[in-house]
Amino acid sequence: MKLLKNKMLQSFSIQLWSLLLIEIIFRLINGYPVFNYSLLRVFLFSAILATIISYLTSSLKPKKMIIINLILVFIYSFYSFIQIGYLNYMGSYMSTAVSSQLGAVSSYIPEFIKSLKPIFYCEFIPFTILLILIVIISKFNNKKTSLFHLKKHYTHENTIMLITAMIGVLSFGMLYYNFLDDRYMQDEQAISLRKLFASGSQPGLYIKEFGIMPYSIIDLKNKIVPSEVTLDTAQDTFIAVNETRKFDDSSWLEVIANENDSILNSLNNYFISQPISSTNDKTGFFKDKNLIVIMMESVNDIIDNPEYYPNFAYLKNNGWYFANHFSPRSNCPTSNNEFSSLTGLYADSNICTANIYEDNTYYESLFNLFNNAGYYANSFHNYYNKYYDREIYHPNLGSDKYHNASDMGLEISDFDYDWTSDVDMMEYYLQTLDSEVPRGSNFMSFIITVTSHGSYEYPSLYGDMYLDMTENTDYSMPIRRYLSKLKVVDNALGTLIDGLKAKDLLDDTIIVLYGDHYPYNLGDDLLKEVLTRDIDNYERERTPLIIYNPGLEKQEFTEYTSYLNLTPTIANLFALDFDPRLYVGEDYFSDEFAGIVTFPDLSWLNKDLYYESTTGEVTYFSDKTYTSEEIKQINQKIYNKNNASILAVRYNYFAYLEDALKKYEKEVES
């Protein structure tokens, strides 16, 4: 009975079982394995945290101690609940690293709340149970044994509690450390458990292995002090020289020999040792043509509807169509995917990469490759920098001129679901071909649309403009508004095609068209109203990719690809001067193309299988099977590509490399 009155023991019990139950519910909802070694790690971490909190609260008055415990359990439940909802809505876990975006996206809170599924509220079961128990016990129990009338502790008892807490933390900590050994992990993982635990990288895998509450702590730590990222290239580095492309690496080798910074040299050694992709039958296929790349906001294959969207259908049916193209989302999905498209590097999925490192420069970016070939490169987006600082990072990526909504004379509504017109932007863009592009120069343009952006829940100018198009359907109003907005996107494509024809530029211009991500503001139930294919798991992220020119024959390509491969693929098609080793993306048409789509949690997909990194599950599509070692080797390559990208961005590596190479080349000349 004395034990029952012990405040520290009661607080410990409340914390331990509440934390453990919250974690188990979280895992069940997300489909993570429950009864394995990761549950032991969750239990031990919960025990450590419960011991610390129980000691810290044991000196408080009983009533205050119980209230604080109740508040903490509510915080745990609420945080887990929000993370599940964010994962469902955005496709990734929320990170404090993107907290700067919260004000910008505040108008989406009602839509986010509406997207929450009833099962998510099960995260509040531990809090509810605790609250009911406190009320019942405090109301019906004898006051001497009430939770609010616990035994008072004396000085010597406080000392005992301190010693008990220290022994408990030490014991649980030693057990926890033991269960960070790699023998308690799935065989295919490329990163060790201890590295994963210390870094907090790969949030999905981290949460699966350690739990949602440890992730909250490491995520906050990484906000203050970014985690260390390392390149483990022991199984992944090799010198590969393709006879069709040769490079004089003497200056680069000199840079390596004289570089004392271990991180910069790890990047030097990584990139210089990557395979040199081959020239192929598509090399120079578009040489000396103009280029327009259009990244369509929130567009997936719903737009593949000739009745509603004839201009998109025309481009698809008269050009190259990539049937298995994906645009996986991360935090800041538009900006991160845009960054990867223009650099051929992974964005750090936990942050708004281009925003955080907006002053970086990339001499190997798509803009700069065309600049070096004598093209005039510019970029366009019919919005302003409420979300992303394109006015800064587009010029640093090499755009000669970035145009936003103000430049176009477009008025911005106070409501985020009243976006500007893509048709107006295309009309403005066509004018710049006369007023801005130097006479006699080829041009390369990167255009980002906006009209089809969410929200679709509320009335808006373009969301309601073409509702008559779907008035005889059974579609829900959010779908109808989305389809209406897509009509504006399609009209903009028609405006562009007609304008290029009128200027006699269409024959000499290549149009690349792709979606930045699927319309995630629409839940699965709504998407299934217009899509007959499976949209579970990775299939949500499928988006269109088209390359069009009047001189092309219709062709469909079926290898799996993503925006990561756009820059090296385009560089090869235009026969630009580029070093394929400087990209983690690959030329789609090269013999070395791996045909792998990678997701932010480093799950991946190819024509044979889908590998889910958080569970280790493999789903096969073909008769070909892979051994655990083969899967681990692919994981290792992906892991290194991801880390090389993150380090290159974090240390502004390509600005360093450009300067270092120029320095040594000048020394040789002199």
Structure description:
- With 670 residues, this protein is of the alpha/beta class.
- The protein has 2 domains: 7-224, no CATH class; 296-578, Alkaline Phosphatase, subunit A.
- Helix content is 45%, strand content 8%.
- Helix 1 (7-30) packs antiparallel against helix 5 (125-140) and helix 3 (62-90) runs antiparallel to helix 5 (125-140).
- Strand tally is 14
Strand order of the largest sheet: 5-4-6-1-7-8-2-9
Residue stretches low in confidence (pLDDT < 50, at least 5 long) are 144-151
- Helical content band: 40-55%
CATH architecture identity of the largest domain: 3-Layer(aba) Sandwich
Main sheet: strands, sense, barrel: 8 strands, mixed
How many helices? The count is 22
Instruction: Please tell me how large the radius of gyration is.
Output: 28 Å
CATH homology group of the largest domain: Alkaline Phosphatase, subunit A
Task: Present the secondary structure layout.
Blueprint: H1 7-30, H2 37-58, H3 62-90, H4 109-115, H5 125-140, H6 155-178, H7 193-199, H8 203-210, H9 212-224, H10 250-258, H11 262-272, E1 290-296, H12 310-317, E2 320-322, E3 325-326, H13 333-343, H14 353-356, H15 366-372, E4 376-381, H16 390-397, E5 401-403, H17 422-435, E6 443-448, H18 477-502, E7 509-515, H19 524-527, E8 545-548, E9 555-557, E10 561-562, H20 566-573, E11 597-598, E12 604-605, E13 609-611, E14 618-620, H21 628-650, H22 653-669
Parallel strand pairs: 1-6, 1-7, 2-9, 3-10, 4-5, 4-6
Antiparallel strand pairs: 2-8, 7-8, 11-12, 12-13, 13-14
Helix pairs in contact: 1-2, 1-3, 1-5, 2-6, 3-5, 8-9, 10-22, 17-18
